[in-house]
Amino acid sequence: MHRMRLITLLAAPAVLIFPAPAAGQDTGTDGPFRIGNVVWGDSPDGIDFIFADDTIPPRAVMWDGSYAFVPNRDAGTITVLDLLNDETDATVEVCPGPLDGALTPDQVTYIVACGGSNELVLVNTASLAVTRRVSEGLGARPASIVVPTPGRYALVYNADGGTVSAVDLEALAVVQTIDVGDQPLVLRLGPGTDRPDGQRVHVSNRVAGSFVELVPVAEHVVPPPAGEAAPLNEVVVLGMIHGGHETSEVFSLEVVRDLVRAIDPDYWLTEIPPNRWDRAWAEYQARGTVEEPRVRRFPEYMEGLFPLSRELDFEVVPTAGWTRPMSDFRAAYLDAYSKDPDRAAGWAEYQAAARASAEALAAGGAADDPRWIHTDAYDAAYDIRMRTYARLFDRSLGPGGWVTINRSHWANIERALDRHRGEGARFLLTYGAGHKGPFLRELRQRDDIVLLDVGEFLDGLEGK
To answer: Of 111, 127, 109, which is closest to residue 119 (Cα–Cα)?
Structure first.
C-alpha cells in the first residue's frame, strides 16, 4: 500500500517556483546547507506535513509515544507529558521565553529555542536535566527549530533577524548563518527522498512573502581506488544472560571479559539506551562507579565494559531502543492481561508457548552454556515463545511489542554500522540472548560485513 501524504499550506503562497534564491539572499554555500527553491506568495504562514501511517513522528514526541515535550513561554519551563498514562511527568526550568523545541533523531536530547534569552537549551530525555546551552552566534529571538536526519545539525530560525542558524550539535557551535527573508515564521521538516539526508527543510517568511527550501549539501565521499572494494567490517554477536553471569561457571563474568579481550573490538554496541550513556560514562570517569539505574542493572557492563575500557581501545555505542515509560506500561499491561477473565484463553496459550519454548531450550543444552546459546537452534527454540507473545500482545503494546522493540534496537545498530561502513573495523554486539536471533537475521542481509562465529573465540579460550 502506498503511503498517503497530505501537505497543508497555511495562507498558501502562489505556485511560482524559482530554482534560484532571490537577489541579495545568502545561499549559504560555505556551510552544510544551501538555499534551494523559493516560492513567492502573499504572507505565507507556514506548512504542516501529515502522514496517514505515522511513519514520521511529531518532532516533540518520543518515538514510542511515551513522552511529549511542551514549551511554556511565559513560565520559562517545559512540561514533560506522560502520554501513556495521560499525566504530567515533570516540569523543567529551561530559559526565559521558550518558544519551540525538537527532539534529535536519536531521541537523546530535546532542544529548546529560547526567544527570551537568545539561546538553545539541550535537555536529556532520560534524566530531564539541562545538559548544554548554546548562545554565541545565534540570531535575535530564536523561535523555531528542526533537527534533520542524521542529527549532526540543528536549524534554528531567528524571528527578529531574518536568518536561520545552523548549529553543529557535536561542536555545540553555530557554523552557518543563512539569510532567508524578512520575519521567518515557521520552520518545518518534510520528506524528500531526493535530498542527501532524505528530508526537506522549509521556512516561511511572512513579511518577505517567500517560502524557502533549505537543502543539505552532500558531503564528498572519496571512493576506493579503481578495482578495489571497500573493506568489510567484522561483527560478533554475543548473547548475554545478564544476572546469570554472576552465578555461572561456564559463562561467568570472567569468561565474558576474556571473550571481549579475544574479540578485541573497535566498536562495542551495547544494550544501553543512548540517552542514558553520557551520565553513566561521566559517573564512571569521575568516581569509578555507575549509579545510572538502567546501566547499573547489567553486570556485563559494570564488571566487563567499564573496567575493560581502561584496558582495551574500543568506542562504546549505546543502541538500545528501550524507554522506561514504555517498559513500565508493558509490565502493567501484561499483569492486567494475565488477571483478566475474558483473556484467560489467550493467557493460557501464551503460557503453553512459554513452556514449549523452555522445554526446547532445555533439550538443547544448559541455560548458561555459551556454545548452546550461540546456535541457530537456540534462537529457534526461544522464538517459539516470542512468536505467540508477538501475535497476542504486540498490537496492543505497539512500540512496546516484541517485534517493534527489536526494530527499534536494530535501527540504532544499523545506524552505527552504516556510519562506519567500509572501515574494515570489528564490531561487538552484546544484547540479551533472546534478541540475538532477530539481529542475526538482519545482519545476514548486509553485504558490507562478515559475521564471526563466537565458537571460534570460545575455542581459543579453551586452548589457553
So the answer is: 111
For residue 341, report the phi and psi dihedrals to the nearest 5 degrees: -60, -35
Helix%, strand%, coil% for the chain, nearest 5: 35, 30, 40
pLDDT level of residue 39 (50, 70, 90 thresholds): very low
215's grid cell: 537543502
Q: Where are the domains positioned within the chain?
A: 5-216, 233-462
**210 CA to centre of own chain:** 34
Distance (Å, whole) CA 143 – CA 156: 7
pTM: 0.82
Q: In the predicted model, is pLDDT for residue 241 greater than 80?
A: yes
418 three-state secondary structure: helix
Which of 33-42, 119-128, 359-368 is the least confident region?
33-42
Round to whole Å and give the CA distance between 81 and 125: 12
- pLDDT tens-digit profile of 266-324? 999 999 999 999 999 999 999 999 999 999 999 999 999 999 999 999 999 999 998 88
Distance of alpha carbon 374 from alpha carbon 331, whole angstroms? 28
What CATH architecture is 5-216? 7 Propeller (2.130)
Q: Name the residue among 412, 408, 49 with its Cα closest to residue 199.
A: 49
Q: What CA–CA distance (Å, rounded) separates 239 from 382?
A: 12
- Give the helix/strand (H/E) hosting 278: helix 274-287
* CB hemisphere CA count around 74 (13 angstroms): 0
Nearest Cα to Cα of residue 133 among 187, 164, 75, 93: 93
Angle at 333 between CA 329 and CA 336, to 5 degrees: 140
Q: Are 117 and 154 a contacting pair, CB within 8 Å?
A: no
- Amino acid letter, residue 29: T
Tell me the one-letter amino acid at 163: T
- 383's grid cell: 522464538
Block residue for cell numbers 526461544: 382
Instruction: Decide: 318 and 108 in contact? Cβ < 8 Å.
Output: no
Average pLDDT over the chain, rounded to whole?
84
Q: For residue 388, which of 426, 351, 334, 441 has the smallest C-alpha distance?
A: 351
> Can you count the helices (H) and strands (E) in the chain?
12, 23
